[in-house]
Amino acid sequence: MDQLSDQAPISQNLLVDSIERVNDHPIILVHGLVGWGRDEFLGFRYWGGLVDIEEDLKNYGYETYTAAVGPFSSNWDRACELYAQIKGGTVDYGEAHSKEHGHEQYGRTYSGFLPEWGEINPDTGIQNKVHLVGHSLGGQTIRVLTQLLEQGNEQERELTDPDQLSPLFNNEQTSWVSSVLTISSPHDGSTTTRFIDGFFPMTKDIIALAASLSGKKTDNNFYDFKLDQWGLKREPGESWENYAERVYNSSIWSDTKDTAEWDVSPEGASELNSWVLAQPDTYYFSVSSEQTYPSIWTGYHKPELFMNPIFYLTGGFLGKYTESGEYDIDRDWWKNDGVVNTNSMDGPTLDSPDEIINYKGVAEIGKWNYLGEFSSTDHIDIIGIGLYEVRDWYRSIADLLGSLQ
Predict the structure, then answer these.
(1) Which of 40, 72, 158, 262 stands 20 to 30 A from 340 (CA)?
(2) Contact 127/174 with Cβ under 8 angstroms?
(3) Measured between alpha carbons, how far is 389 from 12 in angstroms, rounded to an integer?
(4) Taking every annotated instance into account, which residue ranges of this chain make up the domain Lipase-like C-terminal (predicted)?
(5) From the candidates 98, 136, 178, 179, which is the catalytic residue?
(6) DSSP state of 404
């Protein structure tokens, strides 16, 4: 994948010109931190902004679904929710996990995008698989889901009655995931968490902003925090403003590591990388982004002119932050897209045995096939919330996934 020029829209940077389609596996789009579902946020799409990437891919010939998992929840909880949303059924966070972290074991119930997922298609004799595409935190989430589907979880098997064990935690099935594709994901964490710790609590700040934008209508479906497992479900008749206030004042932001904020720190990412591994029968792809430039005087990375202004502070902070200790944060971490350090996006390296290779037209299964870097592209430009037209690029990505054996 070639880098973009400063002016070129993403749609001009097609991954492939012509490629043969050999599978019909559906594509599941998984949002990152703060993300939302298609029926939220006044119809403004996480995937596409004013356009709809899901609908465009469907029109292009690819069965596509948009997931809506906990925007601030841990990758474990999000993976459990994603499993239920795709397969159907009630979310089971696991008996061992829920007891360890002090929240409810069961969550919402879904009809399922693909109830036949994992079964053998009687017409083709081929197992029904999916392609998982995750942006930002969503990239970590789909890695966790793929790991659990293939390997299960030993703690859950030891603690839970076999008759009550979710299929997600047993290790009796082959992989149901054809490919994992991550976009601008913090595989080694993001030093944005250092900015948050030093200046303001990001999660609560975002919640306060959402509350101020939503208005005071009782039936407003502006935003859903999806934190039911923590006792933070919106009550019947409760105003959205009061609901947001309860979430804002919850103790979970300081009393547990079972949240996204821990998972996207270098420490949390390293912990995740130590057990979430590239599976040998799944294809892995990664894409990175950046929109900073090095100062000729200091070498620090500064936000480019057209970076979204909401990222100026964090982009500038990431562009010069260093740290010595368990994790040495040096100048290699300075290039960023306003939210995530670019060197964290190509695949997991902290405490991970996974292998990362440059994609050269033929994907290698069980390894991270790095597709390249989008230059002058900030963290939300790449999902269509910004200056660039992205639909052609996502069609190209769909063609790549559709070409996998």
Answers:
(1) 40
(2) yes
(3) 9
(4) 23-390
(5) 136
(6) -
Answer yes or no: 24 catalytic.
Answer: no
Q: Spell out a b/e string for 220-247, using b for 16 or more CB atoms within 10 Å of the CB, else e.
A: eebbbbbbbbbeebbeeeebbeebbebb
Look-up: residue for tokens 């070129």?
A: 8
Helix (H, G, I), strand (E, B) or coil at 28: strand
- 28 phi-psi bin (left φ>0, alpha ψ -120 to 50, beta other): beta
Q: What is the DSSP letter of 234?
A: P
- Is residue 136 part of the annotated active site? The answer reads yes
Other CB atoms within 10 Å distance of the CB of residue 79: 26
Q: Could you report the per-residue pLDDT of 344-369, keeping only the tens digit for each? A: 999 999 999 999 999 989 999 999 99
In tens, the pLDDT along 23-40 reads 999 999 999 999 999 988
Distance CA 290, CA 266 (A): 19
Q: What angle do helix axes 266-273 and 137-151 make, rounded to 10 degrees?
A: 20
Q: Which residues contact 242 (CB under 8 A, 6 or more apart)?
A: none
Instruction: Please tell me which residue in 77, 379, 381, 396 is annotated as part of the active site.
Output: 379
Between CA 109 and CA 34 the distance in angstroms is 22
Give me the catalytic one of 258, 337, 346, 378: 337
Tokens of 95: 């008996």
Topology of domain 10-402, CATH: Rossmann fold (3.40.50)
SS3 at position 76 = helix
Could you give the CA distance from residue 301 to residue 280 in angstroms, rounded to a whole number?
A: 37
Taking each continuous run of H as one helix and of E as one strand, the counts in the chain are 13, 11
CB 349 within 8 A of CB 261: no
Tell me which residue has tokens 């005087």. Answer: 297
Q: What is residue 350's three-state secondary structure?
A: coil
pLDDT for residue 163: 94
φ/ψ of 257, rounded to 5, equals -95, 0
Contact 347, 262 (CB under 8 A): no
Per-residue pLDDT of 273-299, as tens digits, reads: 999 999 999 999 999 999 999 999 999
